[in-house]
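The pair is quoted verbatim as follows:
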Amino acid sequence: MAAFSAAWAAGAAWVEADTQPTADGVPVVLHDDDLDRTTNGSGPVREATARAVAALDAGSSFAAEFAGERVPELGTLLDELSGGRALLLEIKGRHTDDQLAAVCDAVRGSRHDDRVFFESFETDELCRLAGLWTGRSFGLLVHQLDADPVAAARSVGAAAYNPEIGALLARPGVVSDLHAAGVAVMAWTSDDPVQWAVLTDLGVDAIITNTPGELLAWQHARGG
């Protein structure tokens, strides 16, 4: 939560987070499949209960000043989406129907469901999400560009196509192709102003970065 708070303090409207289920089906906000790297726990998050995960220190591995920082449940993050804040939420990894429904229920119950945009690498999850929540917009994450990105987005009903930046910069023309088909482009992850300039000139709809304050300052200096 300290990272999200810092992004909001820097002026970012959107933050990005990953959600995964605990052993007892509670959606929590965690990037890695395992607890080892970012907490003082160990093993897959999906094999730990929500209570066990909540007791872990998720801050000391980053810096002493964050000691005691916890792994938040998804609902905790959703509760903070007020005053124009919004969330790009990755459904991380494979989910059962019940696990996917728990994510949807948390978002619906937050009173901020209009401020959440889903994304995932998992095409099956996106297809089932479309069935669970008719009319919901979401993005398709990709490491490598599909041969036909427009067809790939349409195959799962994605409103956005979200590629890794290196792959996108190798085929920049796909941005105009996707836009012509009414599909947004959210590129990840760049902390490099040189890339920001190229991506902005290409007309991408969002740049996902680890340094939102610097990106916002760069955009302001550039005039938009």
About this structure: The chain has one domain: 2-32+73-222. The two ends are 28 Å apart (CA to CA).
